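User: Glutamate--tRNA ligase, Kribbella ginsengisoli:
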Amino acid sequence: MTERPAPTDEDVLGGLEPNQVRVRFPPSPTGLLTVGNIRSALFNWAFAHHYGGKLVLRIEDTDKSRNTPEALQYTLDSLTWLGLNWDEGPEVGGDFGPYLQSERMDTYADVVAKLLAAGRAYHCYCSQEELDQRREAARTAGQHSGYDGHCRALTPEQVQAYIEEGRRPVVRLRMPDRPITFDDLVRGEITFLPENLGDYVLVRANGYPLYPLVNPVDDALMEITHVLRGEDLLPSTPRQIALYEALAEIGIGSGRTPRFGHLPFVMGEGNKKLSKRDPGAGLGEYMERGFLPEGLLNYLALLGWSIADDRDVFTMDEMIKAFDIRKVNANAARFDPKKCEAINASHMRLLEPADWAGRAVPFLAKAGVLPAEPSDAQLALLTAAVPHVQERMNTFSEAPEMLGFLFVSDQDFSIDPDSAAKVLTGDAGAVLEATGKALAGVGEWKTEPIEAALRASLIEGLGLKPKNAFGPVRVAISGRRISPPLFESLELLGRESSLRRIEQARASLPAD
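Assistant: Predicted structure for Glutamate--tRNA ligase:
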């Protein structure tokens, strides 16, 4: 890899008009999407939308033993939830379908037949044992241990002999005997030497096409112009470039080789690449915890890219406008769960109260706090509470604990035992008795009069510090030590429920 000046827009587009940009995201429906998958999808989506091009969703579902219809639907639903809309692909259609690789097997077989006929690919009859032996001999001699081209130029007699032995050949691509150089949009110019690029397998002996064949074939036929993918796939790039060239020779696709950009690794704990088994790696966790799609995407965008040196929080529309593949950092990016949560919290605070309330309802309903379809009065109460909790919550899964006390009946209301043990002690009985008397005399049930009455009674009258004065009141009405602001909570809860809960809490205290 060598240093080079940052490419211009003209370099990035490679002679294309901006609206001719076509990128793809090719997930395999074998389970949950990871944050690394999503980051790749996001960068492709932003790149396409920045230039007014198209994002193609193509499904790598050729592994029948691992792919399921349920996993495919989950993938589609997840991308929809994230708002990463695709322009072509399943459920959308397009001119270059089908978009499931399992439905393109005849296409791959036809392309392989043409590569063989043109001499750009050949049958290899070497057994695995023979390959292992030759590789070990090469390593012992200090030579390159890749495939040695043994079957590149077999005579008809040798081929017939292998066939009579019952050998089933693989198909290999005939790699060029020259260096392969390409200008990576993220990493600059990269060169691979021919001695490190052996003829690789396109089709297994059972006739099954492999990833290094099907993806370039699909890219060529779907006229993909740019391939933005993880750096773990970088070693396969020169082989794929050689295949693009071979496909162009036999008239497959537009004849253009896509521009490549290899995105940095996402690292987890211990400075290791984030694994799908690591905590925080799967998308499902963020959906379950109540992250906002825009909050999660905002954070993932920061794993290798930034909108500005002094700014971390932005909308997806702002990202589309500002996204520049040339500014993606080639160095690995570390996934920080705490920062991810903080970015999400910032987006939650940007929501209008009605929007916030609507997004919280499914989590309150799941916890049994609200019905799936709340009444107008319940929604009004929830919306009124939003400004008092937006600064206190990081995810919507926190909503039931923070807001549940507002929606439970006084008969079903209970106080958290731990909170009671730590707060409803000592002078709590006197505090609650004074609170009940002070609140009973409040005229208009609003935050300001409520606060004035309690401060006069508990702080001035009893001489208590605010923590000792208001802590028992908070626990009595909310059931917990952490709640929305106390005086606002009393107003939201209402006069009758507030007085009833204070009396219930006082009555529950042990007698002196």
